[in-house]
Amino acid sequence: MKVENGIRVLAGSMVLVSLLLTAFVSHHFVWLSVFIGLNLIQSGFTGFCPPRKLLLKLGFKDSP
Predict the structure, then answer these.
(1) Which residue in 6, 11, 16, 41 could disulfide with 55, CB within 3.0 to 4.6 Å?
(2) Mean pLDDT value of segment 48-52
């Protein structure tokens, strides 16, 4: 799997987990979804994405 696909899977999974935690644990977990969204926006503008480095270390393939 390529890094870009891994980032999408990771972000989507984190949003779903955040929504489940918001529904069943505490309404304060909605802030995790906000943080994920803001991180996606800033990475779109700056090109800096911390999960990318993690996924590369885990063996994901870099796109040319």
Answers:
(1) 6
(2) 90
Q: Nearest 5 degrees, angle CA 63-CA 41-CA 19? A: 100
Instruction: Give the three-state DSSP class for 61.
Output: strand
- Which contacts qualify for 46-53: CB closer than 8 Å, 24 or more apart? 49/7, 51/6, 51/7, 51/10, 51/11, 52/3, 52/7
Q: Which residue has the higher pLDDT, 62 or 22?
A: 22
At 9, which helix (H) or strand (E)? Answer: helix 3-24
Cα–Cα distance list, 39 to 4, 18, 24, 44, 62 (Å): 15, 15, 24, 9, 20
What end-to-end distance do the CA atoms of the chain give, in Å?
13
Confidence of residue 63 (pLDDT cuts 50, 70, 90): confident
